[in-house]
Every structure is written in C-alpha cells, then in structure tokens.
From TrEMBL, chain A:
Taxonomy, superkingdom: Eukaryota
Keywords per UniProt: Cytoplasm, Peroxisome, Protein transport, Transport, WD repeat
Record-stated family: Belongs to the WD repeat peroxin-7 family.
Subcellular location: Cytoplasm, Cytosol; Peroxisome matrix
Cellular component GO terms held in the UniProt record: cytosol; peroxisomal matrix
UniProt-recorded name of the protein: Peroxin-7
Molecular function, one GO term: peroxisome matrix targeting signal-2 binding
Main location: cytoplasm
Stretches forming WD repeats: 102-144, 253-285
InterPro entries xrefs: PEX7, WD40/YVTN_repeat-like_dom_sf, WD40_repeat_dom_sf, WD40_rpt
A GO BP annotation: protein import into peroxisome matrix
This protein's record includes keyword Transport: yes
A Pfam family reported for this protein in Swiss-Prot or TrEMBL: WD40
TrEMBL record, chain B:
Protein name: acetyl-CoA C-acyltransferase
Main subcellular location: other
Location relative to the cell: Peroxisome
EC top class, as a word: transferase
Protein source organism: Daldinia eschscholtzii
PANTHER family the UniProt entry points to: 3-KETOACYL-COA THIOLASE, PEROXISOMAL
Amino acid sequence: MAAMLEFRTPGWNPYAVKYSPYYDSRIAVASAANYGIVGNGRLFCLGLGPQGVQIEKTFDTNDAQYDLAWSEINENQLLVACGDGSIKLYDMNINEFPVMNFHEHKRETFSVSWSPVTKDTFASSSWDGTIKIWSPARKESIKTLPVGNCTYSTSYCPSNPHIISAVSTDSHLRIFDLRTPVSAQYHLTTKIPVHVPPPVPPLQGPTPPAAPGEILTHDWNKYNHTVIATGGVDKVIRTFDIRNPSAGPESIMLGHDYAVRRLAWSPHASDILISASYDMTVRLWTDGSSMPAQQASPVKAGIQLGIMNRHTEFVTGVDWCLFGVGGWVATVGWDERLLLWDANRLLQGQA
Amino acid sequence: MGALERLSQISGQISGSKSAREKLLEKNPDDIVVTACLRTAFTKGGKGGFKDTQAADLMAGALKGLLERSKIDPSLVEDVCVGEVLAPGGGATEMRAAALVAGLPETAAVRTLNRQCSSGLQACVDVANQIRTGMIEIGIGAGVESMSLQYGPQAVTEFSELLESHPEAANCKVPMGVLSEDMARDLKISRADQDAFAAASYQKALKAQQAGLFDEEIHPLTVKFTDPKSGETKTVTVNKDDGIRPGITAESLGKIRPAFAENGSIHAGNASQISDGAAAVLLMRRSTAERLGQTVLGKFVAASVVGVKPLLMGIGPWKAIPKALSLAGGLTNDDVDIFEINEAFASQCLWCANELKIPKEKINPKGGAIAFGHPLGCTGARQVSTLLYELRRRGQKIGVTSMCVGTGMGMAAVWVAE
C-alpha cells in the first residue's frame, strides 16, 4: 500500500485513535506505557500537514489511557478514559492539565463516548461494572447504570439521545433507554446474549462458537439505527437488530484469528465495517445486508473485503475519517504506530 | 490499579473464550475458599448416641474440631453463623456460649439463623458473602440440630385468623409429610420408584461407610449417653452414623405401611430420618488462606434461593439448581460432577433429579438423608463436607449442594474442590 502515513509513539503503546469530528487534519491517540499494564498514559493530539503527521499537543496522565472521545461541542476538547478510573477533559489550548476531571469509577475506565445528538452529555464504562452518564460541565455523574461486570465499551445511539448501549465480560449486549422509569431495571430495556447461535444456522461457512465470551467492542450502524455490530474474544463479529433481540445475529463475520479489539461502521456506506484484532490485522467487511436474501436462513454470512497486515503487534484502535471521498482509516497498535491509509485500496487488492 | 489483574485480563482475551467450567476452575486471590470442614456423626433422634446431648454441646464439639483441624489462630475468626431451626429463640444465646466453649475468644461474633432445612447452607453463604464484601476476613458457617431434644409441636405457633384467612399463607403450616404425599400423588411419583430410590440411598451409604468414606468428614465426639434399659449413664465416643442399616432393598421397603395416608406412598423408609448432628465450615479469601498457610479444600462459587408454592415445597431444588448454575457463570449439568440434593423425601428428590435430567450416578453418591438423617439446621453445612471430600477423593472438581425448604423455597450452591 503506497499511500500510507505513519506516526510513531516510541515508548507508548496506543489503545485508541479517533479522528476529530471538526477537522479532517486532526487525530488523537490515547496510549499507555508498558502495554497498559503498569505506568503512565499519554494523549497525542496530532495534525496532518504537508510534512506528514506532527504533534500538536501531548497530555500525560498518571495511569494508562484506554480510550478517548472528541468533544462534539468544542473542537479543541477531548476526553480520555484512564486506568485509575478517572476521565479527563483536555483542551488543546491549555497546557498540561485537564480542564475537568471526572473521577467516580472505582476501577479502570475502558471507554468514553460523546452524545452525538444532543451533544451535552457523554458516557463512560468501566471494569467496575457500571456505565456513567456525565455532563461536561459538572464533576458529579448524572446517572449510573449498573451492568454488573467489566464493561468494555459503551456508546450512544446515533439518532436517539436517550438510548445507550454497552457490551461486557458476560457476553451480553445491553440497551438502556433513559426514558423508561428507573425502577427495577435501571433503564435496561434489552439484553442480548451475543454468543447464542441463531435459530437457523447460516448456510455457508463454519458455525461460530456458541460458548459465552467477553465482548470487547461494539458500534452502531450509521445508517440503520437499530443495527449494532459486536466483536470480542470469540473472534467473531456479529450484527444484531435491537428491535428483535431474541432473533440472534443478523449476520456473522468469521476470519480473525484472535480477539476482535475494536470495530467501527463506515460513515459512508451502510454495509461496510472495519475491525482491529489481536491477530495484528485490520479487516474490512460487508455485513451482507446489501446482498439478496437467502432462502433457508435469515442469518447472513458477511464477507471479508480486504485485510491490512502492516501492524506488527496487537491492533487496538481503528477509526474512519468523516471527511473527503470516504474510506480513509486510522489504525493504532501496540507496535507504537499510528497508520493512516485508504481502505478503498484494500478493495482494489492493493494492500 | 492491579497490574497482575490487567495482565491476566489481557491474557484471557488472547487465550480465547474459556468454557464456563474452565473459568470456574481458575484460582483467583479473591475466591472464597473452604480451608476446613467437618461434621459430627448423625445419630437417630431419641435413640442414638447424641440423644442426651444438647445442640449447643454438639456445636461446641464441631467448632472445637474445626479449630483443631485447621490449626487456625482462633482470634482471627471474626464471625460465626449457625443454622438452627428448632431451638427456642433460635438458640442464639446457647451458640454464643458454645463458641466460647470451643475455644473461640470473645472477639469472635456469633449469630444463628433459620431458613428451615437450608439453614446450614444459608449460614455458609452468608459468611461467604460477608467475606466477599469485606465485612469480615475469616468466618465459620455452621449448622446444628438436636431433634431428640427440640423436635415437637412447639416448633410452630398457632396461626392467627389473618394468616388462616389467606389460602396460600395457610398452606405454610401444612405438615411436610402430608403435602409431600399430595405432591407425590399429583406428580405421579410411584411408590415403587420412591422405594427404589430410598433403597439405593441406604445401599450407597452402607457401602461408603464400610469403605470408610465418611471418616474424613466425621469428627468424633465423646458424650454422655443414658442407656434406656438400665438407666445407667455412660460416656460414649460417637464416630459413625447409626441410621445406616444393612439389608435394605426396594422390596423390604415395599412392605412398610404408609405414614400419612392410607393409600399413600411415603413412609419412614423413604423419607429423611430424624437425627441429631452438627457441621461447620471455615471460610476465608484465598489470599488470606495463602498468607496463613491454610490448606484449601475447595471454594464457594455461587448460591441461589428461590420461592415455590408452599404445598410444592419439594420442588425447590428443581428451581434453585438451574439458577445457581447460571449464577456460577452458565454451567450445565454436564459440568457438574456431583449433586448433593437433600433427600427430605425420596419422592421430591427423585422428581427434581428427573425433571433436571441429572444422571442417577451423579446424585448423592454416598447416600443421603434417607440413609443417615437430616438434622434440619445442620444438613446444609453437612453437605459441604460430604461433597468436598468426595470430589477430592475422586479427583473431580465441581459440585452442587441443594435442598428443598419448608413453606416453599429452594436453595442451591455451587462449590469447586481443589
């Protein structure tokens, strides 16, 4: 792949990468020393220019950084999820110190997600088994949603500000609707066991494992706002329609050789997603939703469209650029590298 | 935060999805482990070796044995919970005194609890949960019952008009035998099947006793015993269950007259025996056990409690066991090596086992309450010893203890032997 930009983070093992929602030239990388096992964290705010990728600002934290999210209301601000349980809001115009520190999680914060609709709240999830909803303007959380086990990722529905999703160690995808009364279920409206096989198995290909496994990542489809893709330790990517939680997966994507660490739906096509894995590859998929329906089974076997294997360690982060022709992707891995490349080239077999 | 935990989390993500069983067998520092467990022998109510021994004396003996066996510094024990069903006032005063007699210092707190036939298990579970939440570091779950001295009509007070006016509430006082008889009839559990199950319990227990399989769990007690014929009081050492009898077959049980209804199916031979006995379990975190050099016999994983209709109290395990298996991380019957299901009545135990499709050879391999007795508050704590020593002897790992509970409940717990 000829057109590939690289940025190195020597001494720092990246855990997450995100394009700015405001500028096509701005990217942030959350990273940790010593693979996030022990030591500090560093947030890299990077700019893309004629000279390639350059550091605009860095912010160090006392503990590892596992995730980040750009503010949706202020183009200079971004959040990082830290190993000590805190969430820090940094402003690129202010050196060194966070402008806000949100510290309620009792264990590692593993994900942060900014509300894309109302833009006035963000959500975080943690190893302490909770999701918290916050306002960037106040230190105390607005709401705590109990999950009960290590919650690797939480996300807002892209169209409805009241709906929040989460995946966790117990192999379940949970949907919370904040409009429901808090009584009894703490807003939990849907709980999908990700590992349970569909009632009718897909026709082609091997059958995915049916044992429960930790779910490490998930994302909402940007076009069909009832569809969520999940990935985790069982190496399988699945999509679910949350309107029919008992129907099992809509499509199944098999191919990764180790756990799927992160996945992201394309902002430009409804059936395309990309995934990063401990098998050191990044893979591009279609979930099969644009293909004609099969007669015998409602479950579609997604198709791998391409594979990128330039990373030399676990790939931990992947994100799509919202701007331009569409198809630019940022990936980071424990090989201390950020790679920027055009996923369209994978389709043309030029990887 | 914990680097080791982060490391093991990542390695878990790489090594892939583990089965529920594999996950359960992992050893973690925050596991709640059993480092000693034992019981006294069970003896027949009104006749056996403990017929003149107070429940508190039985408990003192069992606690003393537990301290000796574990060699733990008694001052490290922070709480003792004793399941006891029949004692007036729950036996709270007597058990505190018994703990002091056993050698626990005044700093060790003591309480009793009563969840009927599951009291002993509830005591262990409560202590485990206390340790899990950090309220205490080391505790003892125990159970005791002297049915010789405290079994009788005084166990339940008169129901008020209010309770009587509510049909389901009034059902709570229907005697166990009567409701089990109705249940056996309604669920079509035949007399022949019950007798076969009961005979098997006797035969398994006899074989186990002859092979010395109870020796590890039984702590011998020396007590006073008054000979009913001569009236002479002597000192005896009780180290064997005396309810276990040779020569019991389904045919011999078939000849016994039903106890609760003329055409009934339940009789003294296919229901649990009335007995005296005590049992105790020493619990702590694995990290504590390792620090103190305690031998880990097994760990407590999860427990469930459920409610069922009071008249169908016998089906409690049927509802409680699947819940406990799911709380333990989604186990299936195949993952479990031994099920210790209390044999309150052959009818209900058999029905639960059949409904849950548990293979016969996995249930009560050393017999159960039909063969050696069911001292109400003790049974739940007794099952822990019976289960863990047998799992260890066979080199097996995962076990379940469960029982039905009077007034319509069920409890179950998952344990792992090490």
